[in-house]
Amino acid sequence: MDKDVLIDVKRLTVVLGGKRIVKDINFQVNEGEIVGMFGISGAGKTTILRALICQFKKKRWAGEINVLGMSPANRRDRVDIIRSVGYVPQFEHDNLYPTLTPLQNMEFFGSVYEIGSKESRTISKTLFTILDIPRDVWKNNLGKMSGGEKKRVSFAIGMINAPKILFLDEPTTGIDASRRYDILNYLKRLNQEMGTTMFLISHDLESALICDKCAILKEGRLLEFGSPDDLISALPSGGKIARLVFNEISNNKIKRIREFEPVKRVLRAGSDVLEVFMDDFDENFPRLIQLGIQNDLGVISVTKDTTDFKRYFQVRVQLDEEMKEVTLSAAKNKA
User: Fold this and answer.
1) How many CB atoms lie within 10 A of CB 151?
2) 223 exposed, middle or buried (CB, 10 Å; 0-12, 13-18, 19+)?
3) 7, 79, 102, 179 from 176: Cα distances, Å
4) Which residue from 34, 30, 311 is spatially nearest to 184, judged by alpha carbons?
5) Of 113, 129, 165, 264, which sees the most CB atoms within 10 A?
6) CA distance 107 to 117
7) Which CATH architecture has domain 5-226?
8) Are 160 and 120 in contact (CB under 8 A)?
9) pTM
C-alpha cells in the first residue's frame, strides 16, 4: 500500500442476512484528506463504515480492506486498528455520559487508551479550544449543554487518542440547519490544525463542502468517487446551468425545453423553476432565451449559475435510474 494511502478498499462486498448490502466497492483515502460518502438510507454507507472499523467478522465480507496498512481480516490487526483510529457515532448519547462534565468524559475515554488524567486534561484543553467549547462549561454536566456543544464534545472524545483517522457517522445529525455550517467548519479546523484524516458518511449533502473527495453510493454500488470540483466539471459545460423561472410550469413546457437540441438535462428546482444543463452553454444560452420567447413559455426570468454538489448528486442518481430503466427495457424486449 502506498505510503500516503491510509485506507485502501478493493472489491469490497458485504453480505448480511443473505443479502448483498455492499457490491464490489473500490476506493482510497489519502493522508490528510476529508472523504465523504453520501447516499440515501439503505445505500450501504453505514455498512462500509462498520467494515472499516472492524465491526464485522471476516465471514461477512469479501475483498480487501487495508486501514493504516493493517487488515480487519486479521485478529491482531483489528486490535491495533481500533486503538489507532477515532470514531464519532451518529448520536451523542452513544459516546457521552450526560451526568459527567466534558472534562470527566474526556478523562474516562482517555483511560480506555491508558492516557492518564493529567495528559487527558492537556489534550482536552487543546481540543476544546480548537472546537470553541466555552471554558465555563468544561466543568458543567453535559446534560446542561446545548446540542451543538454536545456534538463538539463528541468530536473531542473521538480525538482523545490522537487518531490517524477519525471516522464520523452522520456528523450533522440533530443539528439545526442554521448551525450545520459551524459544525462542519469545526471538523475542517480539526483536520487542518491537527492533521487528522477524516472519513465521514452522511445523507446531508452540505457535508461535501468540507470534503476533498466525495463518494456517491446507491443500493450498495459506488456510482462516483472524486473531488467535488472534478465531479461537477464532468457535467455538460462544466456544470453551468440556466435557471428559468416560469409564471406556471406544465409538462408541455418542460417537454419543449427538453426538445431543444443542446439541452442534456432538465431538473425541477422549485414549483415554477427549472434548471437546464446544455452543451456549449455560452453559445446556446441566448438561443434558450429566444426559445422561451418564441414559444410563449411564460418565462419570467433566466439567470446563469454553476451547479453545486447537491445538484450533481441529484443528476447522477437520476442518470443511474434512467440507465436502469434502459437495461430493464432491453431485457424485456430480448425476452
Assistant:
1) 23
2) middle
3) 31, 36, 22, 5
4) 34
5) 165
6) 6
7) 3-Layer(aba) Sandwich (3.40)
8) yes
9) 0.89
The kind and range of the H/E element at 126 are helix 117-130
Q: Break the chain into its structural domains and give their ranges.
A: 5-226, 234-334
206 burial level (CB within 10 Å; 0-12, 13-18, 19+)? middle
Return d(Cα 248, Cα 217) in angstroms, integer: 34
Mean pLDDT of 225-231: 95
SS3 category, 165: strand
- Residue 129's alpha-carbon distances to 4, 52, 117, 190, in angstroms, are 29, 30, 18, 11
CA distance 103 to 310: 38
Is the Cβ–Cβ distance between 220 and 43 less than 8 Å? Answer: yes
Neighbours of 113 (CB within 10 A): 13
C-alpha cell at 259: 426538445
Instruction: Give CA angle at 65 (63, 66), nearest 5°.
Output: 150
* The pLDDT of residue 3: 54
Report which residue type is found at 306.
T
CB 266 within 8 A of CB 257: yes
- ∠ CA 3-72-219, rounded to 5°: 95
Which residue shows C-alpha cell 446540542? Answer: 147
Residue showing cell 464485522: 56
The answer to whether 102 and 128 are in contact (CB under 8 A) is: yes
Closest CA to 289 of 251, 243, 255, 247: 243
Tens-digit pLDDT profile for residues 236-283: 999 999 999 999 999 999 999 999 999 999 988 888 999 999 999 999
Confidence of residue 97 (pLDDT cuts 50, 70, 90): confident
Distance between CA 321 and CA 41 in Å, rounded?
Answer: 16
CATH placement of domain 234-334: 3.30.70.260
